[in-house]
Amino acid sequence: MRILITNDDGINAPGLQVLEEIAAELAGPGGEVWTVAPAFEQSGVAHCISYSHPTMVARLAERRFAAEGSPADCVLAAISDIMVDARPDLVLSGVNRGNNAGENVMYSGTVGGAMEAALQGLPAIALSQYLGPRTADLQDPFETARQHGAGVVRRLLDYGDWESDADFRLFYNVNFPPVPASGVQGIRVTPQGRRRETSFGVVPYTAPNGRRFMWVSGGSQQTPAAEGSDVSANLAGFVSVTPMRADLTCHNSLDGLAKALNGDMLACSQPTNSDAG
């Protein structure tokens, strides 16, 4: 198997080393693992691409490259240039330091990398390690992802829906729970949740020169979400697996809104009595 890995924490991040181990186990002795990752941390960039400026790509070693761009840039660089002669069979993004469950999905560069791969027609999985009080004192905070990662990916490869003919191909978002590897309760297939009592915010800061800056701050990641969601499963000790698409349409609202609005522009364009001369 020929596997491409990327992340949003940067080429030197410990989670990428964990993903290299997972990918090497999956690829096997006759396989290949290619790394194309951001030269610097790109957390929070979501599905951003460097559309308006060039991105420098540096070869660090055989099958190992760093790009001065986002995870989505890295995927594009890999399939359009670095691996153009033979596209990867699988793209893995992560292992992120911290969860990409709940509302974090919308900000995640880790998820953005997997999403870009899916948009390019490739099987893709994002992997993240939830952190919390039970992982704080671990010698290896990634031990749960390290020990369970390859097994979870294998299960997805065997049983996941890998349809390739849809307009927006499925990809998968995997979050390992904030517990030691021995404390994992199993796997749960879950929808994306929402921590309603926490959100991102801004901490203002005035520099010594009088200029105004801000730091973006996040809320508690131990805040629960709806029962059955990815967040809920993770906090209960389960690995969450969420099938996703790069389609933000709210399909449940289409029919009702169409009945209410279809034809309104024509109706509004008809002159009324008050419009007549």
From TrEMBL:
<protein>
    <recommendedName>
        <fullName>5'-nucleotidase SurE</fullName>
        <ecNumber>3.1.3.5</ecNumber>
    </recommendedName>
</protein>
<dbReference type="InterPro" id="IPR036523">
    <property type="entry name" value="SurE-like_sf"/>
</dbReference>
<keyword id="KW-0963">Cytoplasm</keyword>
<dbReference type="GO" id="GO:0046872">
    <property type="term" value="F:metal ion binding"/>
</dbReference>
<feature type="binding site">
    <location>
        <position position="43"/>
    </location>
    <ligand>
        <name>a divalent metal cation</name>
    </ligand>
</feature>
<keyword id="KW-0479">Metal-binding</keyword>
<feature type="binding site">
    <location>
        <position position="9"/>
    </location>
    <ligand>
        <name>a divalent metal cation</name>
    </ligand>
</feature>
<dbReference type="GO" id="GO:0004309">
    <property type="term" value="F:exopolyphosphatase activity"/>
</dbReference>
<comment type="function">
    <text>Nucleotidase that shows phosphatase activity on nucleoside 5'-monophosphates.</text>
</comment>
<dbReference type="GO" id="GO:0005737">
    <property type="term" value="C:cytoplasm"/>
</dbReference>
<dbReference type="InterPro" id="IPR030048">
    <property type="entry name" value="SurE"/>
</dbReference>
<dbReference type="InterPro" id="IPR002828">
    <property type="entry name" value="SurE-like_Pase/nucleotidase"/>
</dbReference>
<feature type="binding site">
    <location>
        <position position="96"/>
    </location>
    <ligand>
        <name>a divalent metal cation</name>
    </ligand>
</feature>
<dbReference type="GO" id="GO:0008254">
    <property type="term" value="F:3'-nucleotidase activity"/>
</dbReference>
<dbReference type="GO" id="GO:0008253">
    <property type="term" value="F:5'-nucleotidase activity"/>
</dbReference>
<keyword id="KW-0378">Hydrolase</keyword>
<dbReference type="Pfam" id="PF01975">
    <property type="entry name" value="SurE"/>
</dbReference>
<comment type="similarity">
    <text>Belongs to the SurE nucleotidase family.</text>
</comment>
<feature type="domain" description="Survival protein SurE-like phosphatase/nucleotidase">
    <location>
        <begin position="3"/>
        <end position="197"/>
    </location>
</feature>
<feature type="binding site">
    <location>
        <position position="8"/>
    </location>
    <ligand>
        <name>a divalent metal cation</name>
    </ligand>
</feature>
<keyword id="KW-0547">Nucleotide-binding</keyword>
<dbReference type="GO" id="GO:0000166">
    <property type="term" value="F:nucleotide binding"/>
</dbReference>
